[in-house]
Amino acid sequence: MRRILLLITSLLMASNLMAAEVDFDQLKGKVVYLDFWASWCGPCRSSFPWMESMHQRYGSDGLEVIAVNLDQEPELAQKFLQQYAPTFRIEFDASGDMAGQFGVDTMPTSFLIDRSGKARVKHKGFHTDKTAGYEQEIKKLLEES
Amino acid sequence: MLKTTLVVLAVVGLCGCSTVKPWERDLLAKPQMALDSDPLQTAFEDHIYFSKEASSGGRGFGGGGCGCN
Amino acid sequence: MQLKNKQIGKRLTLATSALLGSLQAQAADDWEVSSALLMYSEADDRVQAVEPVLNLSRQFDDESSINVRVIYDALTGSSPNGAMPASVAQTFTSASAAARIEQAEEDDDEEELEKYGDRGSYTIAPGDLPLDPSFEDNRTVLSLGWTRPLSNGYTMNLGGAYSSEGDFTSFSVNGALARDFNNKATTVSLGLNLEADSINPNGGVPTALTMYGAGNTDGSDDTKQVVDLMLGVTQVMNRRWLMQFNLGLSQSSGYQNDPYKILTVVNDGNLIVNPDDPESYLYLFENRPEDRQKMSFFWQNKVAIGADDVIDVGYRYMTDDWSVNSHTLDLTYHWQISEGLYLEPHYRYYRQSAADFYTPFLNAGSEVEVVGSSVTALVDEASSDPRLGAFSADTMGLKVGLALGSSSELSLRYEVYQQHDDNSLKAVAAGSHLDGMSQFAELSASWVQLGYTFRW
What we know:
Chain A has 145 residues and is α/β, with parallel strands linked by helices. Chain A has helices at 2-12, 24-27, 42-58, 74-84, 97-101, 131-143, and strands spanning 31-37, 63-69, 89-92, 109-113, 119-124. Chain A has a five-stranded mixed beta sheet, sandwiched between helices. In chain A, a hairpin with a 5-residue loop joins strand 4 and strand 5 (119-124). The longest helix of chain A is centred in the middle third of the chain and has 17 residues, at 42-58. Chain A starts with a helix and ends with a helix. Chain B is built from two helices and no strands. In chain B, 67% of the residues are buried. Chain C is mainly β and 456 residues long. Chain C has helices at 11-20, 95-107, 110-116, and strands at 31-42, 48-59, 65-76, 79-80, 90-93, 121-124, 131-132, 137-149, 154-165, 168-181, 186-199, 222-238, 241-254, 262-267, 270-271, 273-274, 277-281, 283-285, 291-305, 309-320, 325-338, 341-352, 362-363, 368-371, 374-377, 391-403, 409-421, 444-455. Chain C has a 16-stranded antiparallel β-barrel with strand order 1-2-3-8-9-10-11-12-13-19-20-21-22-26-27-28. The longest helix of chain C is centred in the first third of the chain and has 13 residues, at 95-107. The two termini of chain C are 38 Å apart. In chain C, 45% of the residues are buried. The model of chain C is unreliable at 1-26 (pLDDT under 50). Classes of the chains: A alpha/beta (145), B mainly alpha (69), C mainly beta (456). Chains in contact: A-B, A-C, B-C. The A-C interface holds A 41-43, 45-46, 73, 105-106, 127-129 and C 23-28, 61-63, 183-184, 307.
């Protein structure tokens, strides 16, 4: 709970939060799926095709997928991106500053942020058998004005 | 020997000391960093040494790696 | 029984480390197929073995996974029968085998004849190590494992294995539970392995410490049970360093002997003519205790060097109630030369002390009472099996791995093994048959291992 409050506070002070060049202020009005990933993480490989399909399906409804890369060896991240060729937004946070601020404790970790900039859901890990539930959460937040 | 082992295990266990961030497990995730990076090779070795020497086994399992999910 | 896995306590290793350690690498919906071939050979025309293995594993969407492994083992060559080399020729005639061969020939029983091969009779030249030449056997092993993550950070593993060869069958089940702590930086695991073996030696179970060739048997088969417990802690020390400790306990009860191994009985270093057969000398079948308790302590470190190299240092200490203590040091360096090519030089040092009942031969008078044709052992246990002697051993090897495409790999490994005698010499009279003869057969062996892994 404390983590979410901390997160909300830091998002509301978004003008100060420019870590990894993500301006949350500018993103208000959209539902943001913020994902922290790395090329060496197995479940992350599974999550990319799913994130791509969410982006294709709901992008026009206001879903913004932002995948923040945490690779310590940039060539490995580039190779991964060449292979998966995502069309959604990729950011880089090799120093882990942004991941630290968001309290990332598992790889991968993702957050669903609503249109007012409030973080509503945190997913620890990516589970292929739970994607239907993940999609429901996105749809619910998109329905909110 | 048993006492020493238990002390060592306890110290390591309490050591929650690891300050490794989840995204710093990139090197540990590489296949060459797995505790048993070639299980078939380990099986051959275990078999050969078991047949020719008096000791066997000893290896454990689990842990390390990327720590994902 | 060289290179025969009579105690398949490796089930723990098979069923668990193959899965718990590699979960992160495998995507669901595909089978990972690993295959390997071992070609093993010992110096002096001793044991040769060819062993192909096929392993299939698959991870499912709920992060559970299964593993199936099939091993086939074909052994040929010869193996020491436990008797000492001597300055005179020695002929080994197993009366029971000879009788059965005669009967089988009369009955035209091909199957029975094949079982005995040349085991009826063979002669060893003076100075040569007595090797039983009829060493052919085939072994098949099937093992299965299933891993499943449970709630609260626990992972469970269950498995079973079945092994069958001409004179030995083994069945085992295993279970393990692992729990992660500290964001998966620490893993504690507990495993249990239960094994039941059935031994059906050719010619029946020889009565311990009775004369070789006399045909005294205690039935046609015997059994053994083994219980193994393993407690382990794996700890991520820092971004580059992973450490593991394991404590293992093993209790084995039942028939521990090698039914084909004998010991030479001598009088002041001279071979004694067999009272029942003037064409051969006197040897007794070995005997070991009915129980064996072992404890092992294993410590392994993996340290990442640079971006892709790794140094692997492992140490194992083992002690048991047969007075065998051993130290093993295992060093491997993984040198990633380029993206798809690596080299792994390897060195292993091993040293063990002898079992308290290990002896290269028996002395008439103090260890065996020979009065006319009456032969009685005065010791309860005795074995000259080199596996139970004191020795050190070095292994050196090199492995090369080549990636073929994105998800398959070919590897080749060559290893050389050499034992060094560490036993104290048992006194023999100057000029006797055993004078100057080697009391421990130092094994030299080498093997080639070919591996191929791919996703399907």
